[in-house]
């Protein structure tokens, strides 16, 4: 099973991050967490990697529905969205969202399927809007 929903943008990293935030907001997702992986790895172990940001996106009504179906599902929330510079090209950025179908496949709980389907559709719409026009 593919566990990500990818898109590559012809935009520098900082511009892509702004567009991703706006696209997620349009689909009802707020950003609960933000991890600057590049800065963290540099500070903690001296490693140098490309710009790499993990956004913890949450759509509260969908999260509530998922938690009603399975209280343990919080282990798989929020929906992670990665924004990272494309290898060797500062003008291109890769955006990848976690496929919410993982909630269903990992837990084996079919009652999570409608939530995963809606979350996936919203994430795909957000990422699709980044390349539209």
What would your notes on this structure say?
The protein is 44% helix and 29% strand. It has one domain: TT1751-like domain (TATA-Binding Protein), CATH 3.30.310.70. It is globular. Helix 1 (13-26) crosses helix 5, helix 3 (60-69) runs antiparallel to helix 5 (113-131) and helix 4 (101-107) packs antiparallel against helix 5. Strands 1-5-4-3-2 form a 5-stranded antiparallel sheet. With 133 residues, it is an alpha+beta fold.
Concise overview:
The protein is built from five helices and five strands.
Label this structure with key terms.
133 residues, TATA-Binding Protein, five-stranded antiparallel sheet, 44% helix, globular
What topology does this entry show?
Layout: E1 4-9, H1 13-26, E2 30-36, H2 37-45, E3 52-58, H3 60-69, E4 79-86, E5 89-98, H4 101-107, H5 113-131
Antiparallel strand pairs: 1-5, 2-3, 3-4, 4-5
Order of helices and strands, N to C?
Answer: EHEHEHEEHH
Count every helix, treating DSSP H or I runs of 4 or more residues as helices.
5
Number of strands: 5
Quaternary structure annotation: single chain
Described by the principal axes of the CA atoms, the overall outline is globular
The biggest beta sheet is recorded as:
5 strands, antiparallel
Query: How do the strands of the widest beta sheet line up side by side?
Result: 1-5-4-3-2
CATH class: Alpha Beta
Q: For the terminal residues, how far apart are their CA atoms?
A: 30 Å
CATH superfamily: TT1751-like domain
Beta-strand content bin = 25-35%
């Amino acid at each position: 099973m593919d566990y990500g929903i990818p898109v590559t943008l012809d935009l520098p990293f900082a511009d892509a991050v702004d567009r991703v935030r706006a696209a997620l907001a349009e689909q009802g997702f707020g950003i609960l967490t933000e991890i600057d992986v590049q800065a963290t790895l540099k500070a903690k172990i001296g490693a140098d990697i490309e710009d790499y940001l993990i956004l913890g996106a949450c759509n509260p009504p969908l999260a509530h529905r998922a938690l009603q179906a399975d209280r343990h599902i919080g282990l798989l929330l929020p929906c992670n969205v990665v924004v990272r510079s494309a290898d060797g090209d500062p003008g291109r950025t890769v955006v990848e969202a976690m496929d919410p179908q993982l909630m269903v496949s990992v837990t084996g709980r079919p009652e999570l399927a409608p939530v995963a389907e809606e979350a996936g559709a919203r994430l795909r719409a957000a990422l699709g809007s980044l390349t539209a026009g």
